[in-house]
Amino acid sequence: VKVKIPFGNKYLDAIFSVPEKKSRYGVILTHGAGGDMNFPHLVSLAAYLASHGVLCLRFTCKGLNIAYRTKAFKTVVEYLKLSDEYKLLGVFLAGRSMGSRAAASVIRHLSQEDDDDFIQGLICLSYPLHRPKLQSKLRDEDLLFIRCPVLFVSGSADEMCEKQLLEGVASKMKAPKKIHWIDKANHGMAVKGRTTDDVMEEINAQVFSWLRENIEVEHK
After folding, report:
1. Considering just the CA atoms, what is the radius of gyration of the chain in Å?
2. Which residues sit opposite 177 in a β-bridge?
3. pLDDT exceeds cutoff 80 at 46
4. Strand pairing of 119-125 and 150-155?
5. Start and end of every KANL3/Tex30 alpha/beta hydrolase-like domain (predicted)?
6. CB atoms < 10 A from the CB of 169, how many?
7. CATH of the domain at 59
8. Phi, psi at residue 131, to the nearest 5°?
9. Displacement of CA 95 from its chain's centroid (Å)
10. Lower CB count within 10 Å: N or C terminus of the chain?
């Protein structure tokens, strides 16, 4: 279902992937710096989640300014929260690369403003922990503030997220967290000798099983 979400005097293009049965939980998903919501990895994940009973709303927000991307993501969260059509108990925020930074930033901001439980967790696909070859400057400040469960799915050869550095940040985080390494994958999740679909199957299954664990934990 295509929708246009009001954002200031503009609109954000978004698409709902709706499961057959009514979903109590949803995932909001956005892209990295260069793409849009039709980036193949996002389309694949959204379809997978919907086919497994989880509503997925993915949206496009162009712009390389992290504050702007964060503001847009926040608008989408509010939009879904107030939706009469999809009455959700909670959402997980997810993004690829820069989109995951925006998601982390939204969670930090919202947790400082209100303490409701609408946001259930964070999913970071290829979190860009540092610029290539600039390991001294880590983008970890939002992560260290977050309290809700966090899943990282990163390539072990990601030039923007050195393995030891992410593990170091994770060890300092107060949130329950899990890291799933895609062996030999780069920042774009490409792995020599594996097809994109094969890699996506691994990512999608990881995301879904983590979601299921965290939704069950909430409602035992």
Report:
1. 16
2. 150
3. yes
4. parallel
5. 26-209
6. 20
7. 3.40.50.1820
8. -75, 155
9. 3
10. C
Domain hosting residue 202, numbered range: 2-218
The first and second tokens of residue 70, run together, are 């964060």
Phi, psi of 203 (to 5 degrees): -65, -50
pTM, two decimal places: 0.94
User: pLDDT digits over 175-206, tens only?
Assistant: 999 999 999 999 999 999 999 999 999 999 99
Which among 143, 130, 138 has a CA at the least distance from the CA of 102? 143
Size of the chain in residues? 220
Number of domains in the chain: 1
- Long-range Cβ contact pairs of 103-110 (< 8 A, separation 24 or more): 103/28, 103/30, 103/73, 104/142, 104/143, 104/146, 105/66, 105/70, 105/73, 105/142, 106/70, 106/73, 106/74, 106/77, 107/142, 107/146, 107/148, 108/142, 108/145, 108/146, 109/70, 109/74, 110/74, 110/77
